[in-house]
Amino acid sequence: MKMKGQMKGQMSYIIKPISLVMTIVLLLILYSSVQSFGTRERQAQEGLDLASDATNILLVLANSEDCLAYRSAITSGLYANIVDVTKLDDFASRYASEEPECARSLDFGWRATVTEFKRSEGLTVDGKNWSFGANQFSRDAAFRNSLDFSIPIAIRYSDRLTRAGNIQIHLVDGELEKISGVLDLYCQFFKNNRLTQGNAQIKTSYPLKYNADTGQLCSVSNPASCRKVWCPMNFEEIKTGGEYILKINYVDGVMVVKS
């Protein structure tokens, strides 16, 4: 009996630590699963947000008279998703490296490509292309996500000629796009005489500088990662990543930005 009691004690002494270890392992697995689910859920939500913004931008481009929409000279009416080929030519020329103001996003960068479809020997083939919007995006580690999305359109040449087409957008969600969007927002306020100065909080993972020759805000660590901003700036270089409060003034049509 004494031997059995000793064995029970020994077994209990062994089992308790094992049970504790197993409990900890199970908790770690559960925590990892919850974290993984939370990450997937967040990524799914970000994807939905990108898709929603991409759709909105495309609809504005195709249906706003300020953008590409065709307005009839006879009825003065606009027609859903019918774009004017003369406006396409103009956008491809004027906005070869930046988004047009009529559909500019303060959160994302984008580039759009319009493709015309032609019939050839009973087959539908790609015809002429037009492209406009930003030609540089975030390329650093702070880049977060991108999306390609498209909608069908009709391209009007004349009363007798309208061709089917497609407008596709490449939408980019990155740190540089967010920061330049903040600066563009202040630029709008200044131009509309709603502000003469202000403060803006930003977070950057890398040093930033402004190229006055191109009008672009760029990553110091990656010169190919740039973003054009609306207003010319006198921008104090940010020499390291971190959180900053930018002090912004508007002097003689130039934004003076200090961190």
Give an overview in words.
- By secondary structure, the chain is an alpha+beta fold.
- It folds into two domains: 68-173, no CATH class; 175-258, no CATH class.
- The protein has helices at 2-63, 85-94, 175-191; strands spanning 69-71, 78-84, 109-120, 123-133, 145-158, 161-173, 197-204, 208-211, 216-219, 226-228, 233-235, 242-251, 254-258.
- It has a six-stranded mixed β-sheet. Strands 7-12-13-11 form a four-stranded mixed β-sheet, covered by helices on one side. It has a three-stranded antiparallel β-sheet with strand order 8-9-10, with helices on one face.
- The longest helix has 62 residues, at 2-63.
- It is globular and about 60 Å long.
- Mean pLDDT is 83; it is low at 6-11 and 36-40.
How would you briefly describe this protein structure?
With 259 residues, the chain is of the alpha+beta class.
Give me the count of strands: 13
> Counting H and I runs of at least 4 residues, what is the number of helices?
3
- Helix/strand-derived class? alpha+beta
Fraction of residues in helix = 25-40%
- Count structural domains: 2
| Gap from first CA to last CA | 80 Å
- Give the spatial strand order of the biggest sheet: 1-2-5-6-3-4
> What is the arithmetic mean of pLDDT?
83
Strand-residue proportion? 35-45%
Largest sheet descriptor:
6 strands, mixed
| Rg calculated over all Cα atoms | 28 Å
| Uncertain runs | 6-11, 36-40
Shape: globular
Helix and strand pattern:
HEEHEEEEHEEEEEEE
